[in-house]
Amino acid sequence: MKQLFILLLACIFAASCNNQPTAGKAIPETTKAVEPSDTTTRPTSLPGYEIFKNFPDTIDGCSGVFALSEKAFKAQQFIFISNLEGLGMLQVDGKIVYLHLSKRTEGTEGTYTDEYAGEGFTLKIKITKVGLTGDELNSNEGTLEIRSGNEKKAVTIFGETGC
Fold first, then answer.
1. pLDDT tens sequence across 41-85
2. If both were cysteines, with which of 14, 108, 142, 151 could 127 make a disulfide (CB 3.0 to 4.6 Å apart)?
3. Tens digit of each residue's pLDDT (9 = 90 or more) over 111-162
4. How many helices (H) and strands (E) does the chain have?
5. H or E segment at 141?
6. Pairing status of strand 151-162 against strand 95-106
């Protein structure tokens, strides 16, 4: 059964890929900004990366969804989405960039770091569980670090993981 699921996931991924990889492209300096909710210095956008306009069909079931603030999260302005089984996604230039989990490091209780790579990007997400928002949902805070070529961007994030 697990092999069938993995095969199905691989087929979905292969069908969703396009023939225009983003590797080697310069990161654009435009993005959709989230209106600031207060006077904190938390960033409201991540230049070059876009907010998902629609939740990807690739995700069915458990997921991790992250935004640049709690306000952006509540408005469903997600910057990074994961299926919690090895597939992560960013949106750049209107296209979904698919990343694959390359390493997971368990930290102290309630913390972990996932590293993803794909299409010329690497991403490191450090997560700390800060509470429960439902029976199977964890509220999380952390940092998101994205690299493309020599460029590196890092921001604090807020999100949820679970089923």
1. 344 566 678 999 888 888 988 999 999 999 999 999 999 999 999
2. 142
3. 999 999 999 999 999 999 999 988 899 999 999 999 999 999 999 999 999 9
4. 2, 8
5. strand 137-148
6. unpaired
CA distances, 86 to each of 1, 48, 136, 151, 157 (Å): 17, 24, 19, 24, 19
The total of other beta-carbon atoms located within 10 Å of residue 163's CB is 10
Torsion angle defined by CA atoms of residues 124, 127, 133 and 137, in that order, rounded to the nearest 10 degrees: 60
CB 125, CB 142: distance < 8 Å: yes
Residue 32's CB is within 10 A of a number of other CB atoms, namely: 14
Distance CA 93, CA 110 (A): 34
Distance CA 140, CA 128 (A): 6
The answer to whether the CB of 110 falls within 8 A of the CB of 131 is: no
CA distance 32 to 2: 38
Q: What is the 3-state secondary structure (H, E, C) of 54-75?
A: CCCCCCCCCEEEEECCHHHHHC
